[in-house]
TrEMBL record:
SUPFAM superfamilies: Thioesterase/thiol ester dehydrase-isomerase (SSF54637). Gene3D superfamilies: Hotdog Thioesterase. It comes from Massilia violaceinigra. This is Thioesterase.
Amino acid sequence: MYQKTLVAGWGDMDFNAHMRNTAYLDKSADVRMMFFADHGFPMAEFMRLKIGPVVMKDEVTYFREFHLLDEVGVTMALAGLSDDGSRMIIRNEFFRKGTLAARVSSTVGWLDLASRKLVRPPDALLQVMQGLDRCDDFVDLPDSRSQG
């Protein structure tokens, strides 16, 4: 399972002295981009390909709090994928001292930056996504062509 250890920083905190909701989304995006870079797709490669990941929906579920300077363990797995790879659901789970603290499920597509439409990713990128660990509740998604 792909995982990274981050830190709950000053800018991640809210008025109640715990990690704010949008910090979970930011850290999920950071881990996604670290995953892609670690697997041969740094930002420069996305720029060369003229595609990028676009989030269409995020769902966050909270179980425990993070406080300032807590270590934040974040995993990444695949909860859904279309046959053509144009759509996916990426699941990030957040752990505090080994205990599940939050879960972020993001519905994501590959956006062609010129046409502004979802596209099938290049074969090498699709293979990277297909190699990602799958969640127990993994679902097959419709491809971009069937969504009109």
